[in-house]
Request: fold
Amino acid sequence: AQSVTQLGSHVSVSEGALVLLRCNYSSSVPPYLFWYVQYPNQGLQLLLKYTSAATLVKGINGFEAEFKKSETSFHLTKPSAHMSDAAEYFCAVSDPLDGANSKLTFGKGITLSVRP
Amino acid sequence: GAGVSQSPSNKVTEKGKDVELRCDPISGHTALYWYRQSLGQGLEFLIYFQGNSAPDKSGLPSDRFSAERTGGSVSTLTIQRTQQEDSAVYLCASSLGAGVAYNEQFFGPGTRLTVL
Reply:
Protein backbone atom coordinates (compact mmCIF):
# COMPACT_ATOMS: atom_id res chain seq x y z
CA ALA A 1 0.00 0.00 0.00
CA GLN A 2 1.12 3.49 -0.75
CA SER A 3 1.30 6.26 1.83
CA VAL A 4 2.45 9.85 2.07
CA THR A 5 3.79 11.72 5.08
CA GLN A 6 3.74 15.49 5.30
CA LEU A 7 5.44 16.50 8.52
CA GLY A 8 3.79 19.34 10.39
CA SER A 9 0.49 20.94 9.60
CA HIS A 10 1.50 24.57 9.29
CA VAL A 11 4.46 26.47 7.83
CA SER A 12 4.92 30.22 8.09
CA VAL A 13 7.43 32.18 6.02
CA SER A 14 8.11 35.83 5.31
CA GLU A 15 7.37 37.26 1.89
CA GLY A 16 10.44 36.77 -0.27
CA ALA A 17 11.78 33.87 1.81
CA LEU A 18 12.37 30.32 0.64
CA VAL A 19 9.40 27.98 0.78
CA LEU A 20 10.13 24.34 1.64
CA LEU A 21 7.27 21.88 2.13
CA ARG A 22 8.31 18.32 2.88
CA CYS A 23 6.81 15.11 1.53
CA ASN A 24 7.98 11.56 2.08
CA TYR A 25 6.37 8.53 0.50
CA SER A 26 6.23 4.86 1.22
CA SER A 27 5.98 2.56 -1.77
CA SER A 28 7.30 -0.78 -2.95
CA VAL A 29 7.93 0.66 -6.43
CA PRO A 30 8.80 4.19 -7.56
CA PRO A 31 5.42 5.87 -7.56
CA TYR A 32 3.89 8.72 -9.46
CA LEU A 33 4.02 11.82 -7.24
CA PHE A 34 1.96 14.99 -7.28
CA TRP A 35 1.71 18.29 -5.45
CA TYR A 36 -1.68 20.01 -5.37
CA VAL A 37 -2.64 23.40 -3.94
CA GLN A 38 -6.02 24.31 -2.49
CA TYR A 39 -7.04 27.93 -2.00
CA PRO A 40 -9.85 28.66 0.48
CA ASN A 41 -13.23 27.36 -0.65
CA GLN A 42 -11.83 26.10 -3.93
CA GLY A 43 -10.98 22.73 -5.43
CA LEU A 44 -7.49 21.33 -5.80
CA GLN A 45 -5.15 22.56 -8.51
CA LEU A 46 -2.13 20.62 -9.75
CA LEU A 47 1.22 22.34 -9.16
CA LEU A 48 3.48 19.66 -10.62
CA LYS A 49 3.91 15.92 -11.04
CA TYR A 50 6.65 13.30 -11.26
CA THR A 51 6.09 10.33 -13.54
CA SER A 52 9.57 8.74 -13.77
CA ALA A 53 11.05 11.20 -16.25
CA ALA A 54 13.29 14.03 -14.99
CA THR A 55 13.81 13.93 -11.22
CA LEU A 56 13.66 17.74 -10.93
CA VAL A 57 10.19 18.84 -11.85
CA LYS A 58 9.16 22.42 -12.48
CA GLY A 59 5.57 23.45 -11.97
CA ILE A 60 3.35 26.48 -12.06
CA ASN A 61 3.79 29.66 -10.04
CA GLY A 62 7.55 29.17 -9.65
CA PHE A 63 7.31 25.94 -7.65
CA GLU A 64 9.55 22.93 -8.21
CA ALA A 65 10.15 19.57 -6.59
CA GLU A 66 12.90 16.98 -6.70
CA PHE A 67 12.30 13.24 -6.60
CA LYS A 68 14.96 11.56 -4.44
CA LYS A 69 14.59 7.81 -4.46
CA SER A 70 17.29 7.25 -1.83
CA GLU A 71 15.42 9.50 0.59
CA THR A 72 11.90 8.52 -0.59
CA SER A 73 11.18 12.24 -0.74
CA PHE A 74 9.49 14.71 -3.05
CA HIS A 75 9.87 18.07 -1.30
CA LEU A 76 8.27 21.19 -2.79
CA THR A 77 10.26 24.42 -2.98
CA LYS A 78 9.93 27.98 -4.19
CA PRO A 79 12.83 30.42 -3.96
CA SER A 80 10.80 33.47 -3.00
CA ALA A 81 7.39 33.36 -1.33
CA HIS A 82 4.59 35.65 -2.43
CA MET A 83 1.54 36.61 -0.43
CA SER A 84 -0.62 34.82 -3.01
CA ASP A 85 1.09 31.51 -2.16
CA ALA A 86 -0.83 31.29 1.12
CA ALA A 87 -2.92 28.14 0.77
CA GLU A 88 -3.04 24.46 1.72
CA TYR A 89 -0.64 22.13 -0.08
CA PHE A 90 -1.14 18.41 -0.55
CA CYS A 91 1.36 15.80 -1.63
CA ALA A 92 -0.17 12.75 -3.31
CA VAL A 93 0.99 9.43 -4.69
CA SER A 94 -0.37 6.87 -7.09
CA ASP A 95 0.84 3.36 -7.85
CA PRO A 96 2.05 2.79 -11.43
CA LEU A 97 1.14 -0.88 -11.05
CA ASP A 98 -2.51 0.23 -10.83
CA GLY A 99 -2.20 1.96 -14.20
CA ALA A 100 -1.42 5.47 -15.32
CA ASN A 101 -4.70 6.93 -14.09
CA SER A 102 -5.24 5.25 -10.76
CA LYS A 103 -6.48 6.78 -7.54
CA LEU A 104 -4.45 9.26 -5.53
CA THR A 105 -3.43 8.75 -1.92
CA PHE A 106 -3.02 12.13 -0.25
CA GLY A 107 -0.97 13.37 2.66
CA LYS A 108 -2.66 15.30 5.45
CA GLY A 109 -1.77 18.64 3.87
CA ILE A 110 0.27 21.63 5.03
CA THR A 111 -1.08 25.13 5.45
CA LEU A 112 1.35 27.77 4.21
CA SER A 113 1.12 31.26 5.67
CA VAL A 114 3.11 34.16 4.21
CA ARG A 115 3.93 37.10 6.45
CA PRO A 116 4.32 40.58 4.93
CA GLY B 1 -12.96 25.97 -21.19
CA ALA B 2 -15.38 24.45 -18.72
CA GLY B 3 -13.91 22.63 -15.78
CA VAL B 4 -15.35 19.95 -13.54
CA SER B 5 -18.64 21.09 -12.07
CA GLN B 6 -20.45 19.74 -9.04
CA SER B 7 -23.89 20.29 -7.65
CA PRO B 8 -25.18 21.28 -5.23
CA SER B 9 -22.36 23.36 -3.77
CA ASN B 10 -23.86 22.96 -0.31
CA LYS B 11 -26.25 20.38 1.06
CA VAL B 12 -27.72 20.27 4.54
CA THR B 13 -29.71 17.17 5.42
CA GLU B 14 -31.12 15.41 8.42
CA LYS B 15 -29.66 12.21 9.78
CA GLY B 16 -31.23 9.21 8.11
CA LYS B 17 -32.10 10.94 4.84
CA ASP B 18 -30.66 9.97 1.45
CA VAL B 19 -28.62 12.45 -0.60
CA GLU B 20 -27.42 12.56 -4.20
CA LEU B 21 -24.36 14.51 -5.28
CA ARG B 22 -23.70 15.22 -8.96
CA CYS B 23 -20.49 15.59 -10.92
CA ASP B 24 -20.08 16.79 -14.51
CA PRO B 25 -16.55 15.97 -15.69
CA ILE B 26 -14.58 17.80 -18.34
CA SER B 27 -15.83 16.83 -21.78
CA GLY B 28 -13.78 14.00 -23.26
CA HIS B 29 -12.33 12.83 -19.95
CA THR B 30 -12.77 9.09 -19.59
CA ALA B 31 -11.62 8.78 -15.99
CA LEU B 32 -13.71 10.09 -13.07
CA TYR B 33 -12.93 9.99 -9.38
CA TRP B 34 -14.74 10.78 -6.14
CA TYR B 35 -12.86 11.82 -3.00
CA ARG B 36 -13.99 12.95 0.45
CA GLN B 37 -12.30 15.70 2.43
CA SER B 38 -12.99 15.90 6.15
CA LEU B 39 -11.21 17.47 9.11
CA GLY B 40 -10.48 14.22 10.82
CA GLN B 41 -9.57 12.01 7.86
CA GLY B 42 -8.08 14.41 5.33
CA LEU B 43 -8.55 13.59 1.64
CA GLU B 44 -9.76 10.04 1.01
CA PHE B 45 -10.39 8.19 -2.22
CA LEU B 46 -13.91 6.82 -2.62
CA ILE B 47 -14.44 5.44 -6.13
CA TYR B 48 -12.92 5.56 -9.64
CA PHE B 49 -14.52 5.05 -13.05
CA GLN B 50 -12.45 4.44 -16.19
CA GLY B 51 -14.32 4.15 -19.47
CA ASN B 52 -16.42 1.02 -19.63
CA SER B 53 -14.35 -0.89 -17.07
CA ALA B 54 -15.78 -2.00 -13.75
CA PRO B 55 -15.34 0.83 -11.23
CA ASP B 56 -12.78 0.65 -8.43
CA LYS B 57 -15.02 0.86 -5.35
CA SER B 58 -12.29 0.04 -2.86
CA GLY B 59 -12.56 3.38 -1.04
CA LEU B 60 -16.28 3.36 -0.30
CA PRO B 61 -16.58 3.39 3.51
CA SER B 62 -19.81 1.42 3.77
CA ASP B 63 -22.61 -0.08 1.72
CA ARG B 64 -24.60 3.11 2.30
CA PHE B 65 -22.38 4.71 -0.34
CA SER B 66 -22.82 4.03 -4.04
CA ALA B 67 -22.02 5.79 -7.28
CA GLU B 68 -22.88 5.46 -10.91
CA ARG B 69 -21.69 7.03 -14.11
CA THR B 70 -24.19 7.25 -16.92
CA GLY B 71 -23.16 7.33 -20.55
CA GLY B 72 -19.53 7.68 -19.61
CA SER B 73 -20.07 11.26 -18.50
CA VAL B 74 -22.11 12.53 -15.55
CA SER B 75 -21.68 10.75 -12.23
CA THR B 76 -23.91 10.63 -9.16
CA LEU B 77 -22.71 9.73 -5.67
CA THR B 78 -25.53 8.53 -3.44
CA ILE B 79 -25.38 8.28 0.32
CA GLN B 80 -28.26 6.42 1.93
CA ARG B 81 -29.39 6.85 5.54
CA THR B 82 -26.88 9.64 6.15
CA GLN B 83 -25.00 9.77 9.43
CA GLN B 84 -23.30 12.74 11.08
CA GLU B 85 -19.88 11.27 10.29
CA ASP B 86 -20.73 11.61 6.59
CA SER B 87 -20.42 15.38 6.92
CA ALA B 88 -17.53 16.38 4.66
CA VAL B 89 -16.67 18.02 1.37
CA TYR B 90 -17.12 15.60 -1.50
CA LEU B 91 -14.74 16.28 -4.38
CA CYS B 92 -15.03 14.99 -7.91
CA ALA B 93 -12.11 14.88 -10.36
CA SER B 94 -11.64 13.80 -13.94
CA SER B 95 -8.69 13.03 -16.19
CA LEU B 96 -8.17 12.21 -19.84
CA GLY B 97 -7.38 8.63 -18.93
CA ALA B 98 -4.98 8.39 -21.86
CA GLY B 99 -1.75 7.32 -20.21
CA VAL B 100 0.80 8.72 -17.84
CA ALA B 101 1.37 11.90 -19.82
CA TYR B 102 -2.28 12.78 -19.33
CA ASN B 103 -2.98 11.50 -15.83
CA GLU B 104 -3.49 14.90 -14.24
CA GLN B 105 -6.69 14.91 -12.26
CA PHE B 106 -8.75 18.09 -12.53
CA PHE B 107 -10.86 18.75 -9.46
CA GLY B 108 -14.26 20.34 -9.09
CA PRO B 109 -15.09 22.85 -6.33
CA GLY B 110 -16.76 20.19 -4.20
CA THR B 111 -20.09 19.70 -2.46
CA ARG B 112 -20.14 20.52 1.24
CA LEU B 113 -22.44 18.04 2.96
CA THR B 114 -23.68 18.74 6.46
CA VAL B 115 -25.70 16.07 8.27
CA LEU B 116 -27.62 17.39 11.25
Q: What stands out?
A: The mean pLDDT of chain B is 92.
